[in-house]
Amino acid sequence: MKFFHTADWHLGKLVQGVYMTDDQAYILQQFVQAIEEEKPDAVIIAGDLYDRAVPPTDAVHLLNDTLDKIVLQLKTPVLAIAGNHDSPGRLNFGSKIMRDNGCHITGNLKKDMEPIILHDEHGEVHFHLVPYCDPSIVRNEFGDEEIRSHNDAAKKITEEIKATMDPNARHVLVGHAFVTPYGEEEENTSDSERPLSIGGSEYVDATHFSSFHYTALGHLHQAHYVTKETIRYAGSPLKYSISEENHKKGYFIVEMDEKGDVSLEKKELLPRRDIRTVEASLDELLEHPINEDYVFIRLTDETAVLSPMEKVRSVYPNAMHVERKNYMFSPESEASNEPMERTKMSDIELFHAFYKEVKGNEATEEAEELFKEVLDELLKEENETASPQRTRNAVTN
Amino acid sequence: MKFFHTADWHLGKLVQGVYMTDDQAYILQQFVQAIEEEKPDAVIIAGDLYDRAVPPTDAVHLLNDTLDKIVLQLKTPVLAIAGNHDSPGRLNFGSKIMRDNGCHITGNLKKDMEPIILHDEHGEVHFHLVPYCDPSIVRNEFGDEEIRSHNDAAKKITEEIKATMDPNARHVLVGHAFVTPYGEEEENTSDSERPLSIGGSEYVDATHFSSFHYTALGHLHQAHYVTKETIRYAGSPLKYSISEENHKKGYFIVEMDEKGDVSLEKKELLPRRDIRTVEASLDELLEHPINEDYVFIRLTDETAVLSPMEKVRSVYPNAMHVERKNYMFSPESEASNEPMERTKMSDIELFHAFYKEVKGNEATEEAEELFKEVLDELLKEENETASPQRTRNAVTN
């Protein structure tokens, strides 16, 4: 039995105001081509097919076209669940009518759900599709008042599955949760992973999944396994935040033998446009060849740059963000004292405040001397040609 | 060949702030039961399955459950199209994957669409599903710059169908449009039918459909035929506005013989709660037995009624609207002269203005005399006990 494991497509996602739909279509084309070449027995999508409950129509079209290709053209079963970004009810639409064609989308969790059973030459593989849902839903569905956290919910669900599961079959669980080695807090999230719940009850202990031959997870965008090789996140197929800059995005090909042991191969997907940081001075940057990536620019210039985004986009037309590496308030200076009102400042005070705002540190005596010289020059010129009032508070410091 | 013709379900509709979903579920249960009893060969839903592009989740569940019952449990093919209220792209999701199971939902119009072919003992019946779409979409799809109006679009689409249609088969067109005898303006709309377009180009000439054996239409909520018995609106299965008060709601059973001639039977559906007007005085109304209908109350009382809705709802808990039959400005009095500022009016002037506002006509001399008497009484009492200032402009008229 060979299957693909992917997750977290987030179709219709906006990154820094840019719809990723074209980039997603580009990646999914590669993915569909790989299905055509590799001919897996099934494709698992472990939740967050869409980025939101009501995705844009383009995203609906893209998922529809992709499923049509996989299920109808390539005759490959799809096993998909709702993630925390999906609307369970909307994703569930048509699922019963579609399943005879091998399209299995489980939006809503139900008690006593039957696994999807696929066959190979060694017998049955049972795929247990466990969509994301709030602990309160699991509490109601199973009538168990003790279920308070995601960990309680996962424990209950996996216990129910294990209680009735066929010991002669091989078993794959498909889930969407924040699974950790101990069910405790981790700092492994990226900016594009929406928290499952507020207050720390979102973590699920990996040991609940240890008796499945493979656990195909979604939710965390970085591909990794938890406690053992067979409890695994596929990661998202695209970078959805600059915090995912160093991720290698792709999917897994999982081959399961007759005993249920798996061998894994990670396949990378090549994005149309990468998301990455570029750190350079503006002059260096303008020397770069034109590049279409979604770059986050950190300008190293120490001097002011006017209209930086405009200049950056002449080289990086899809730049998403520009910031100044050395161009920040230091937090202390903001907190320590209220800035004086500008009209009450002397020219030298104004210079010091401006220097600090732009450079982030105090002007040296040398810089101050230089400023005074230039200012005196200017004032002298001004006094010779115009009203003397301009000198009112020059060089009082 | 026997099929049901229904349309304009508008699942998820709000009427006067009330979600109709429970009422719709109630009606659809009857409809599904009728399918179970009558065993038609197909069910046509001629557009506006939902009331809006993004329907509430409850409405999605209801459509999903209803289709599951019709298609999977009762093994009856469904032939549905998008109406102007539906989102073509969203309604189209999964349609290719579902069609092998007999669920045919056409959201987006495409050139060269194949009809759905069903068989009976006499041969083939071709169902041509033409979803609602804007003329501009038809213009682009067919590359015909001449298409400006809905009538142009319908002409083009039906010509294309007729050009290739099998003369040995029988043909049913399923459409969602404002079809009239001459393609000209009509005043046949109810409040719950959203106009297809602004500017009068929405009307479609019925003659485009005259060569089909049956044309199953949706859009207008009153069941009726246009020019001939076989070009027909099923009407909505429920009243969705008080302007539909006198409609008989239901669906049609269409039986088509070997030649394509049809016999029709209209079936009524019994709503959980009717939408209707009740005209009575408050006293009469409070004598009525308690009733759950969605009533629009017209109170005939000539005197003021405080908190009318609260009182009405003790008898009609689902009352949607209360108005006063004899309690309006007459348009002339509003237009003819600006009302005097109240502070400048004498008590008698105030009485006349108030009387006119409440009753809609001028106070008689008798009424004025009665008022003066009562006012004098009151002022006398007041003068004996309180400050004399209150009399400042009493009875100056």
Automatic annotation (TrEMBL), chains A, B:
<keyword id="KW-0235">DNA replication</keyword>
<dbReference type="GO" id="GO:0006310">
    <property type="term" value="P:DNA recombination"/>
</dbReference>
<keyword id="KW-0378">Hydrolase</keyword>
<keyword id="KW-0540">Nuclease</keyword>
<comment type="subunit">
    <text>Heterodimer of SbcC and SbcD.</text>
</comment>
<protein>
    <recommendedName>
        <fullName>Nuclease SbcCD subunit D</fullName>
    </recommendedName>
</protein>
<dbReference type="GO" id="GO:0008408">
    <property type="term" value="F:3'-5' exonuclease activity"/>
</dbReference>
<dbReference type="InterPro" id="IPR041796">
    <property type="entry name" value="Mre11_N"/>
</dbReference>
<feature type="domain" description="Calcineurin-like phosphoesterase">
    <location>
        <begin position="1"/>
        <end position="96"/>
    </location>
</feature>
<keyword id="KW-0255">Endonuclease</keyword>
<dbReference type="InterPro" id="IPR029052">
    <property type="entry name" value="Metallo-depent_PP-like"/>
</dbReference>
<dbReference type="InterPro" id="IPR026843">
    <property type="entry name" value="SbcD_C"/>
</dbReference>
<dbReference type="Pfam" id="PF12320">
    <property type="entry name" value="SbcD_C"/>
</dbReference>
<keyword id="KW-0269">Exonuclease</keyword>
<dbReference type="GO" id="GO:0004519">
    <property type="term" value="F:endonuclease activity"/>
</dbReference>
<comment type="similarity">
    <text>Belongs to the SbcD family.</text>
</comment>
<dbReference type="InterPro" id="IPR004843">
    <property type="entry name" value="Calcineurin-like_PHP"/>
</dbReference>
<keyword id="KW-0233">DNA recombination</keyword>
<dbReference type="Pfam" id="PF00149">
    <property type="entry name" value="Metallophos"/>
</dbReference>
<dbReference type="InterPro" id="IPR050535">
    <property type="entry name" value="DNA_Repair-Maintenance_Comp"/>
</dbReference>
<dbReference type="InterPro" id="IPR004593">
    <property type="entry name" value="SbcD"/>
</dbReference>
<comment type="function">
    <text>SbcCD cleaves DNA hairpin structures. These structures can inhibit DNA replication and are intermediates in certain DNA recombination reactions. The complex acts as a 3'-&gt;5' double strand exonuclease that can open hairpins. It also has a 5' single-strand endonuclease activity.</text>
</comment>
<feature type="domain" description="Nuclease SbcCD subunit D C-terminal">
    <location>
        <begin position="272"/>
        <end position="358"/>
    </location>
</feature>
<dbReference type="GO" id="GO:0006260">
    <property type="term" value="P:DNA replication"/>
</dbReference>
